[in-house]
Design brief:
alpha/beta, Rossmann fold, two-stranded antiparallel sheet, 7 helices, binds S-adenosyl-L-homocysteine
Length: 216
Amino acid sequence: MDFDKQRKRMVERQLVPRGIRDGRVLTAMGAVPRHLFVPPGQRRYAYDDCPLPIGPDQTISQPYIVALMSERAGLTPGDRALEIGTGSGYQAAVLAAMGVTVWSVEIAAGLSRQAAANLGDAGYADAVSLRVGDGWTGWPEEAPFQAVLVTAAPLDVPRPLLEQLDEGGVLVAPVGLSVQDLVLVRREGGGYHRQSLIPVRFVPMRGRAESPSEGD
Ligand code: SAH
């Protein structure tokens, strides 16, 4: 199977026609070997236009959604990004391929271990730091971040993640139950400006996000 050819086709047929324009995103998506981030039995589907299972109730997002979140995060090389929901490590690898340094939190220890192995195999281990825990609290020791990408859906944006944004920084997160809104929040002039992008479907954020009243 020619994965290089499939990956090039993924960029040309799934990303460019849907409006992904950022050259750094297109180059990164054309470079990161997505097939190394899915279970061996799924490799032949790695470049298809859909999410794929990576474990019990967990999925690696559709390539277009990864590209859209990477583009809307507005990152430039040398920036620092926080990801909540490491999963397979693929989204983190795409950011790393854009020259961004990544901190990523995953609640399931087994997935985090597998992501570490995937990132090592794909050659992105040095640019990505992983932590096992509830991403609701973010990674305060490493803040501020120029972008926060949330890849599991909370019912509302966790306050600590907003507070860990740099001035001018952007948070992208699926928010809601079942079918969610992909929201973009920009920290600007002492406030937070929020807009909705598109409806999306991510797995729910577990842990503290399930009882937000206790967290605030
Ligand atoms: N970004 C991943 C896909 C994420 S799937 C990729 O590129 O492959 C959503 C992930 O969020 C799952 O791995 C799930 O275990 C994790 N998750 C759910 N709730 C979480 C929480 N509170 N903190 C951190 N990770 C969480």
